[in-house]
């Protein structure tokens, strides 16, 4: 299977990292590798760069409308853009990377998050990146559903909200 690092996987990784920020470079490295990325060991500078990228990304998630969201993602792309290049760095076949060779982990993640988010929003819809609809849950998620109408970060939150609505209707009656 050829993993597209600029598709939904990287947007889900961004959401995971934003929802539970890595505490140190080792955790960042482990979580990137668990997500299927081939990266060197992260440094404290990589962690700082990644946390900064996640701050920028969260501003795009929380944007008030499509134009603002697009402008914020475009700012990320401008700050991280590199020429697309063919690479066979893993020996698993030729594929395209939007990054220069030998970049540190923080720069790679910044680029992956920016490009992956741009492809996700352009391909699936500008509304498909949001926070959970449950008021007390601020979890970010990428809507990768077929219908594009996902409102909750998890089935647990969807059930909690359904029970709340049911009880509200029952008490009103």
Give a brief rundown of this model:
By secondary structure, the protein is mainly alpha-helical. It is built from six helices and four strands, in the order ααααββαββα.
Distance between the termini: 54 Å
Q: Please tell me what the overall shape is.
A: elongated
Structural class: mainly alpha
Count of DSSP strands? 4
Helix content: 40-55%
> Which regions have little confidence, pLDDT < 50, spanning 5+ residues?
none
Q: Quaternary status of these chains?
A: single chain
The helix/strand order is: HHHHEEHEEH
Strand order of the largest sheet: 1-2
Mean pLDDT, rounded to whole units? Answer: 90
Helix count?
A: 6
Largest sheet: 2 strands, antiparallel
The radius of gyration over CA amounts to 18 Å
Overview of this structure, please?
This protein is mainly α and 173 residues long. The chain is built from 6 helices and 4 strands. It has helices at 8-19, 25-34, 44-61, 66-80, 105-124, 155-172; strands spanning 85-87, 95-97, 129-131, 140-142. A two-stranded antiparallel ribbon has the order 1-2. Strands 3-4 form a two-stranded antiparallel sheet. Strand 3 and strand 4 form a beta hairpin. The longest helix is centred in the middle third of the chain and has 20 residues, at 105-124. It is elongated, with a radius of gyration of 18 Å. The termini are far apart.
Question: How do the strands and helices of this protein lay out in sequence?
Answer:
Elements: H1 8-19, H2 25-34, H3 44-61, H4 66-80, E1 85-87, E2 95-97, H5 105-124, E3 129-131, E4 140-142, H6 155-172
Antiparallel strand pairs: 1-2, 3-4
Helix pairs in contact: 1-5, 3-4, 3-5, 4-5
């Amino acid at each position: 299977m050829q993993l597209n690092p600029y598709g939904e996987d990287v947007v889900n990784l961004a959401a995971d990292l934003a929802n539970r920020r890595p505490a140190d470079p080792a955790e960042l490295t482990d979580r990137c590798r668990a997500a299927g990325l081939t990266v060197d060991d992260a440094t404290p500078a990589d962690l700082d760069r990644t946390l900064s990228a996640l701050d920028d990304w969260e501003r795009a998630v929380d944007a008030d409308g499509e134009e603002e969201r697009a402008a914020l993602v475009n700012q990320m792309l401008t700050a991280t853009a590199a020429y697309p290049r063919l690479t066979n760095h893993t020996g698993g076949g030729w594929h395209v990377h939007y990054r220069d060779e030998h970049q540190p982990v923080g720069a790679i993640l910044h680029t992956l998050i920016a490009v992956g988010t741009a492809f996700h929003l352009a391909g699936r819809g500008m509304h498909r990146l949001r926070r959970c609809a449950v008021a007390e849950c601020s979890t970010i998620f990428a809507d990768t559903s077929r219908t594009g109408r996902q409102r909750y970060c998890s089935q647990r939150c969807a059930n909690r909200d359904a029970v709340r609505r049911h009880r509200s209707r029952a008490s009103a009656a």
